[in-house]
């Protein structure tokens, strides 16, 4: 089963998103800030990361940049999540290395299609 | 002119008042000097002339002259010449000569200054040489007692007069200086008052700006804080709905969906408020790129089509090929178009929504126009007036019936302004609405990292009007029943003028830029009145006039020629109803329209 890492500081959002993804068969790990996100990304090497971009300790922009700079984590697809549908956020997310971008509140069908598209692209082992 | 001839320079009247007694004294001195000479009529006439007539003559000359001050200075030189003549005539007898020359030089010095006094001295010498040439130059030192006394008395009086005059002048000068100083002080005081008022106005403006920005920042933060719990409400209610179906509680799903609908509305509001506050705080950035106009129009059309067709409407896109590209923020242009299209879709049922795109390049610059017209419920003028204000939806009932946050059009207008454009609305209650957006077709000197586009337009160039008259006529004319004026003129100014005039007089106005288009529109639309320029890009306007007249359907339609070509007879002989030479006499044109309007209504 594909493993997804959710990096999200808000407890309710984290809980909600992980439960909904688990219900659809994904194996979900969570992190509450950017530091923890990077640590879990390199320890577990998940198949995909959902990264909230406004995070405490280390924000999602910087965390994504570091994940994309790491030897073993660079290949992991990252979907940036931001609270508001501003074109500039999407643009900036791509600049720091996000493979895709979506807005919160999450519209599950749309997010699922983005997740599936990125997972389909990964090299088959 | 008449006035300045009657109003003489103060110098003239002053000199006249001095000259009358002075010349009288001179006359007396001459009379006493020549008393013992052989009596000659010519001599006595000359003395009488000098003493009595001369001052009147000079005064008259100065009065008649257009520049009385210059005339008076010439008069003083004549005085000098005359007195020079008499000095030689009296064989330079010292005392009377001294009296006369001193007096005239003092007068010239006090009025015209050193250089003028030198000219006067020259005139004195000239007079002396002139008379000396006839009578020879001898010096007579012998004088009678009477002449001596008169000369001394004359010298005293002249000295007294000029001395007193200079005293008066000095006092006047001192008074003027004092008054000037007082005035300066008053001006200084007023200046300080103005300065401090300006300062406090600037400060007030600055603090108002800061307050407004603080408000916007607060709203932006608030929106963010509101959105987080709202996400949870939306997410959990969605999860609950899924679980409820799975657990066999389908009956509670409608209630859960109501939570979701209300939550989504709230989210829309929050997002709009955030957009608005970002724009107001100057934090909305523009990301400029060059893109095809047609591309963004097609994208917007694809997104909007479902929305438009939901209410049984038809969506029509009129976007000619070859519109070219513009440099703008593509996301914001798309947002503007989508807002207008979804707005039109919302307020129209079983009708037509049209997006009409055009480009105008002219002296006023390069502009792209987007017109969104609908055949929906329309608005009254009172409603359109508040339309672009936040929460300015036509009324509370509208919000209930048609939904929406009431912020969409406020945001749309702000976005248009941000991009250097403008938006306007025209509407007719019950018939439809036209929104017209004008965006700059090219933006120069823009670094791509600013919060708004500033246009560098030349002063005095009037930007093309943001008007939807032609578009609204094109969409809704058959049902509107307003009579039509067709303007066949290549000059956009003429079209604009007639749109304004015609609109005011209750006409719809259609503009054709070429003769061919004009002939086509005339036979298709059967206008109530046609205006025609004699110079058209594709044909002779008089030929067009003949062609219009030969169309049986237009035989009785009034055709008014509006042109720079002054060939009234030819126009009228070819069947023109009236003939205007540009620039157009607005009142006459308005009268023709008004007459036609009442005729059409009858």
What is this structure, in a nutshell?
The complex is a heterodimer of chains A (125) and B (602). With 125 residues, chain A is an alpha/beta fold.
What can you tell me about this protein's structure?
The complex is a heterodimer of chains A (125) and B (602). Chain A contains 5 helices and 5 strands; from the N terminus they run βαβαβαβαβα. Chain A has helices at 11-23, 34-44, 60-69, 87-96, 108-121; strands at residues 3-7, 27-31, 48-52, 78-82, 100-103. Chain A has one domain: Rossmann fold, CATH 3.40.50.2300. Chain A is 46% helix and 19% strand. The two termini of chain A are 13 Å apart. In chain A, strands 2-1-3-4-5 form a 5-stranded parallel sheet, with helices on both faces. Chain A has 125 residues and is of the alpha/beta class. In chain A, α2 (34-44) packs parallel to α3. With 602 residues, chain B is α/β, with parallel strands linked by helices. Chain B is built from 18 helices and 12 strands. In chain B, the strands form 3 sheets. Chain B has a 5-stranded mixed sheet with strand order 2-4-5-7-6, sandwiched between helices. A 5-stranded parallel sheet of chain B has the order 9-8-10-11-12, sandwiched between helices. The longest helix of chain B is centred in the N-terminal third of the chain and has 102 residues, at 145-246. The two termini of chain B are 57 Å apart. The interface between A and B is medium-sized, with 18 and 21 residues.
- Give the strand order, joined by hyphens, for the main sheet of chain B: 2-4-5-7-6
The secondary-structure element order of chain A is: EHEHEHEHEH
CATH A-level architecture of chain A: 3-Layer(aba) Sandwich
Shape of chain B: elongated
Number of strands of chain B: 12
Which fold does the CATH topology of chain A refer to? Rossmann fold
Determine the fraction of residues in helical runs of chain B and give it as a percent range: 55-70%
Give the averaged pLDDT of chain A, no decimals: 88
